[in-house]
# Entry
Amino acid sequence: MTKQRQLKKRQDYISWDEYFMGVALLSAKRSKDPSTQVGACIVNDKNKIVGAGYNGLPIGCDDDAFPWHKEGEFLQTKYPYICHAELNAILNNIGMDLKGCKIYTALFPCNECSKAIIQSGIKEVIFLSDKYHGSDIFKASKIMLDGAGVKYRKVEAHISSIELSFDETRV
# Structure
């Protein structure tokens, strides 16, 4: 009788942080915003996804009837109408208490989203980019998160990208 070599588990699997940030980035692909696509994913203490969202118009608002401009008269820009990814993820949660959860988001949250994060009980923010860190809106965000004891950190990814394929022969 020949002895079979024991098959060992795969070593190149992604980390939890990479997985959940990947879900946030995939969620961003649903955004209709032509200039900025942001996604967010909320995870409980058992590493279960309990909410996801992306930046977009509120339900019932026609994507083709509202402006997507970044500049111009305030009411002719996207800013008074768009719900940010973090707020959408909180509002889209599966109906559970978010106390103690983590939120993964492509961009560091603005002050308005940080208010919602704090109020919902989320205790950690993991972000990919903090490209607006010099803006007062994001400085205020950090002041509030610090004041409320909400931790935040940049995601530690050991990969630069993930490829997804809908080619059934590659499954």
In short: Residues 16-28 form the longest helix (13 residues). The chain has four helices and five strands.
